Amino acid sequence: MGERHRRRVCENWGMPSSFEYQVADLALAEAGRHQLRLAENEMPGLMALRAEFGDSKPLAGARIAGSLHMTVQTAVLIETLVALGAQVRWASCNIFSTQDEAAAAIVVGNGSPEHPAGVPVFAWKGETLEEYWACTERIFDWSAEASAAGADFTGPNMILDDGGDATMLVHKGREFELAGAVPDAAEGDSHEWRVVLGVLRASLAVSSDRWTRVASEIQGVTEETTTGVHRLYELARDGELQFAAINVNDSVTKSKFDNKYGIRHSLPDGLNRATDVLIGGKVAFVCGYGDVGKGAAEALRGQGARVIVSEVDPINALQAAMDGYQVTTLDAVIGDIDILVSGTGNKDVITVDHLLGLKHLAVVANVGHFDNEIDMAGLESLAGAERVEIKPQVHEWRLPTGRSVLVLSEGRLMNLGNATGHPSFVMSNSFANQVLAQIELYAHGEDYDRQVYVLPKLLDEKVARLHLDALGVKLTTLTAEQADYIGVPVEGPYKVDHYRY
Amino acid sequence: MGERHRRRVCENWGMPSSFEYQVADLALAEAGRHQLRLAENEMPGLMALRAEFGDSKPLAGARIAGSLHMTVQTAVLIETLVALGAQVRWASCNIFSTQDEAAAAIVVGNGSPEHPAGVPVFAWKGETLEEYWACTERIFDWSAEASAAGADFTGPNMILDDGGDATMLVHKGREFELAGAVPDAAEGDSHEWRVVLGVLRASLAVSSDRWTRVASEIQGVTEETTTGVHRLYELARDGELQFAAINVNDSVTKSKFDNKYGIRHSLPDGLNRATDVLIGGKVAFVCGYGDVGKGAAEALRGQGARVIVSEVDPINALQAAMDGYQVTTLDAVIGDIDILVSGTGNKDVITVDHLLGLKHLAVVANVGHFDNEIDMAGLESLAGAERVEIKPQVHEWRLPTGRSVLVLSEGRLMNLGNATGHPSFVMSNSFANQVLAQIELYAHGEDYDRQVYVLPKLLDEKVARLHLDALGVKLTTLTAEQADYIGVPVEGPYKVDHYRY
Amino acid sequence: MGERHRRRVCENWGMPSSFEYQVADLALAEAGRHQLRLAENEMPGLMALRAEFGDSKPLAGARIAGSLHMTVQTAVLIETLVALGAQVRWASCNIFSTQDEAAAAIVVGNGSPEHPAGVPVFAWKGETLEEYWACTERIFDWSAEASAAGADFTGPNMILDDGGDATMLVHKGREFELAGAVPDAAEGDSHEWRVVLGVLRASLAVSSDRWTRVASEIQGVTEETTTGVHRLYELARDGELQFAAINVNDSVTKSKFDNKYGIRHSLPDGLNRATDVLIGGKVAFVCGYGDVGKGAAEALRGQGARVIVSEVDPINALQAAMDGYQVTTLDAVIGDIDILVSGTGNKDVITVDHLLGLKHLAVVANVGHFDNEIDMAGLESLAGAERVEIKPQVHEWRLPTGRSVLVLSEGRLMNLGNATGHPSFVMSNSFANQVLAQIELYAHGEDYDRQVYVLPKLLDEKVARLHLDALGVKLTTLTAEQADYIGVPVEGPYKVDHYRY
Amino acid sequence: MGERHRRRVCENWGMPSSFEYQVADLALAEAGRHQLRLAENEMPGLMALRAEFGDSKPLAGARIAGSLHMTVQTAVLIETLVALGAQVRWASCNIFSTQDEAAAAIVVGNGSPEHPAGVPVFAWKGETLEEYWACTERIFDWSAEASAAGADFTGPNMILDDGGDATMLVHKGREFELAGAVPDAAEGDSHEWRVVLGVLRASLAVSSDRWTRVASEIQGVTEETTTGVHRLYELARDGELQFAAINVNDSVTKSKFDNKYGIRHSLPDGLNRATDVLIGGKVAFVCGYGDVGKGAAEALRGQGARVIVSEVDPINALQAAMDGYQVTTLDAVIGDIDILVSGTGNKDVITVDHLLGLKHLAVVANVGHFDNEIDMAGLESLAGAERVEIKPQVHEWRLPTGRSVLVLSEGRLMNLGNATGHPSFVMSNSFANQVLAQIELYAHGEDYDRQVYVLPKLLDEKVARLHLDALGVKLTTLTAEQADYIGVPVEGPYKVDHYRY
Predict the structure, then answer these.
(1) Does D321 touch chain B (CB under 8 A)?
(2) The pTM is what?
(3) What spatial distance separates the first Cα and last Cα of chain D, rounded to whole Å?
């Protein structure tokens, strides 16, 4: 697939100029800049941080290695970090998620395609795994910056991570340097892991302490996702975490907004772009009633579908029932379903048997997690099943039953594959948390142990606060007497830590 | 713009073969056939009519001239008419609305691009007005069919019309033949009218009675839209209607479904494809609370927007209030609006002053009617206003105030321009009414005067009935006692004519 | 039951004073006046008509015989008619529906319980059928008023009717007078019909032309309900209607508001007062998806129930599906239902078999029509069934299955029996139509034939208009150009007659 | 007010019989038993616990002193505790909240009013404060039970508390015994505190160690509410807590269900019973968007009101906006509001100035907290304000502005005062937590320190699980592979502790 999506990669890497980058096509920069301008209007949190901190530049001196989907929204994040004084190098955290025009706009910056003056980005849509890890490695090579500054450093002093790949590379690199060797791949190791080992083996051949130096220079990492956070907690538990970490994922303004309201928007968007099938009147089944499932169910009901929900957790199941949804197993109603949505974060939620039991041309969509939420492997090896491409990311699977199902995005996240992911406004919340976490860790990294922290509730509330004006929300202010009565400061924070919102 | 959208037009018109057509590219037929198969699954009304009437072929002998958007859904309609025994020739009723792959699939039929074996279609996306009217004229030339059948007829015996262009051409052609001359265009006549006059002038030069014969052969027309119906009522009122007409537009299963549920689907779809702006939390203003406005408001609320409505009719205004919406004038809240939607069917609903008063980068969308719902002419002539194309059908208008607005589809219907129009399931309702109307008029045309009729309620109910199974709906049956108690037949119709649903 | 609800009836009928009335207890007047004041605030339509016509008194000279539930809302109607110049005599149209404090307040008027100075009312909660028809007869005896005015008339010159009892009495009285005799009751005649015959037989014994004179003096009747309207159309069809009639029921501001929005309010209200059962999370089944069913389903969904709908009309069934409800037969899901609501207007919708199939302690509620929507007669004669009163209007029926069901209001309209009927704001719409119809018929009765008319759309729109301010609705005004463009007057009416809203 | 609500108190206290009680009227027992039977059907959690533990009787030997609103739902709780083997004595925790028929039914038990055989209850609607604390004291006097058992104990070994009054009495009694004296009331002490001091002074005069013994016998307390929990955390923090405590309030199945879904039900119920004002079309303002506010807003929107929300916490404010509500200050829209609801838990949320600014006859309702959410004291002392009782719990306050407002339940919780509080199904969740907490603490009290605990998540999930069948919910079961994949046991618990639901 890398080949298929490949455009001419436009690069300036290894050239005499000190400005390195590798993106698809700098000619896309103008189109990308249009998108950025529109996105800025939808990302009031980031723009407010630029206004608040643009003069004081709390990130002056920060060298941030960023590994996060190189989209339009991330572009606004990058330029916010720069506006706050940081130097930045960036790669994407997924081989397909780069929006090439956004990458181009960031590289060009306030220059031109001929004389780019922006930020070094190493990302394009449709990288191979080899390319992906080469790009990730590039965000840790700050020799050009060191040379330009006449300073003596190897890499970044901060990481901004999504999924933990960048953090993992540093930790594994250091580990193998300490061991003096990169192990051979074991039988059964994934292709991707072999690629990582190759990168680190090549590095070790050149330097015995590159990653050790990199690790020692880093003050901290701020992590975006559940998966990355999970890795961090494991490292911290095992005493192996090399720097402090802030868990951005569990800020209320991240997890309760991104998941619920983001999916509410992007699920019907993806369904519509993929199939043009009327949602109204249809039977839609949503696997899982966590935040993602709640957003999915609300969106489908809002379009007039009859929504049925499945759950394994009795508390979430009871919530679904109290919200008016039928709650049952997928097996019990499999033959009635027109639109089947999985949003659980588990695997094999939709099995081949389920697919065989669906109505003819039922639509199957994953908004939860990896493609293994749906047993795509089982489907691909099913005797007599045939895959017909209707259009990119939309495939009719003709089944031995004589019926077909429509599988979106090959079982991967369809809100990314068939739509454009979370809208800017939602990402502004997530990314404002990222910026505040970067500021905090960069300024006070020495106050933090090598543990995983969440942002204090007051900053979480601040992120929310930065998004109110854009929606015309007027906040009520507590009087001193009222604040005293409920035992909180007038300016917040307002809730105990276990408050559930 | 004709040029811009033009692909190689692939034609077989005027060639020795008796099979004429003119479409963009027959190589698109396979892609089109994929779309048709999916659409058939979403158009149970048409497929049920094929099942019910496929053997008896009530349209055997019918020669239908069709003028209606040449889309995937229309393709399913055309093949349904053919399955019921009709011969068909088809043109689109809009220069932009043809989906070229659907047109190709219809022409190819069960043949191949090299040996097409389908239906004569004369339509492609991006016709010039001259091409458009030439195509329309082609659907009235049945000489090839007459010759093949060894029969003596000039044109069709039925029209299936959308907007009334086909019907108008016949009436004007006959009128000018009776007058013996086509009048010169008057000062101020539109370009399109001059094109029509040209077509008819050329015809008159060849034959003094072609359209008179055509008119006399036609048993009736079935008309899809409000605008076309309006023209028909005027012709009937003036005693000039040359054949019977059925007003399909005012079937309940057309007007109450197409408008409300169609827009509920396609408005957010269009907004999302155009802008990727989060709808949740935004202030959305909907001008008009008729069926279109009701669908628009429901869709926006279903996505978490705060919806404000304007109305001129106090009954509709009271409905909006009782449905929980704020109802006020556009002027009163113009500065608070993020998304401005017009769905009224009137002109100048959104004025230049309104546009100047909107928030920066507010989105402006028309789902009502012609582009004059928004004063686009006024905007285009506004001193200091600048138009920047973000992408096709999405333009930023930079205003002298320093703010911008995003205008979708250049002020035209954005559910067609930015999305793909009404989904198949909705169109299956409309088109099942069309098929039943064609069957009725073709079988019993002699029983009808040269007036405009609506379908009897029993057929309206039948259309609904044909769409229930697909949604898993089980209908309850009246007992004889119950039917007698409320004074209706067990099998319907169930309501008095003025029942409002 | 008459006995049970009876309070001391406080009367001044047949006494020397010219002020006649018969109500439960004038001491309730103050409590009633409180309720009236609150209701006036919720009935802006009526209050606006007082303001508009209070000086010109278009009903001066009108003598109105009113037969309509003697509730708080009707009290505001009565005082509006009086404010517009009318003389009024009033009875209820249902033996149970009188609110005694409202009746008392109307009788007392601006006087005191000792010296009442209001309007003659003949109504109390819990009348026997004999009392009911005696009260109805009283509203046609205007001898006191004639005597006071020194005028020569027998009865009213207008009727305001609900259900048609008052109109029927006049027509039957005249018919028997013409025949010279009141027929004997036939085998199988209902008790109520025998009571009516008795009243008319007694009248005929006293006067041979009383009802003939009454009929000749009446200019017209305005009728509130479907049932009454149905009787009027039959009389008109048979050429027997003795005066003009206005069908108030089919004004949009009556039927589309009263039915839908009234039930949306009063169904959950009645359920809650009757049972205190949590609606959220429950399976609620609504029989019928007309306006009543639409309101019921919306209310139940709004409380978090899962709503299933049944329909016999495929169009309404399709609407229900498109609105996101499961649509199936009652039989198909009878064992899953917690709350069973009937709103059809038909009989035997809920059979004994259905009741036997319900879950233990399922709630059964009728908001449609007479108590025969539920087969109460069948239930009452079911062997082994036992009725236990939980509280008034709430009965547990213990069934031979060992399960019980909770039947509300003995199968009668539970929004009246368990709640307080339609709220004032809804009734203000209905009653404003009544007042406008009275004004129209009284002023222009001679222009009307002995037929049934609906109010012109402009008056329907006016009724809506009168209710907008109270809800803070600001209406948009058409420009002259816009009105011309769509072919309507600036001030309305705005829609064609068959527009469905 | 104690006088006003007082019925004949029917008691057997201090009589020779060992069965003590004090309730309003045992003749109400049959009516109460009807209510209990209906409630049992709505409390599947409690009934399931009876089925699960009825044989093993894990509470055998437990002596529970209960202080919690003596309602129908509590009656089902009490009989559940008894079914599990416990002995119980009960008082209400509020002078007004007892439902006398429920209290009577519990006392009568399976006996008769003449020979009651149930549980000792000391509660009636409308107690004075003196009576209230005397009743509370009675639940700690287990001399009759000790005597009957021939055992040597003073009081209970468990407390089930709501608000903490029972727990406070024990702690204060012990404290004063240790000090050897009960202090005099200080200037400014409330009347209620003086009553408490009086009770303890009388006790100390009789025994120097009664409460010390009581405290030492108690293994633990389970506490229902936020307020009571707050007191417990303070005692634990100060090292003064005398036994272990389980915080039932913060179980998810308590706080997220009771608050949100309970209010969603009871707010419109209370509004309707109080005023009969149509909610549809009205402007409703909800102060606070916590769980209570969320439920209130959803209920009002579900009835067709336009809902505006105020918030002090920016996160909750952003949630409200994303859910489609206008969010602003009360001051900004005070003149537009028809229905004003406060659900914050703070004081002076609605000030006298707000009341003066409301529309005429706007409805003011508190569902949050104490009556000081509304400045009732300020209103009562406002010069020129007049209070008119429309009916009990509904008062028109005529204001110096010439306008009036309708204040429900004198500013106290209107869902209790005007409706009947939370429905049984919601309380079944809360009370199943109580029962599980009692079982846990009674069985394993020695494993707990004198701290405050929450129930383990698995028990929280169990409570939810017990309520699924009644709603027809079918739960999905994880496979072993799936459970392993996400790192949870197949049978739960399924979520990390900070999961927000």
Answers:
(1) yes
(2) 0.95
(3) 42
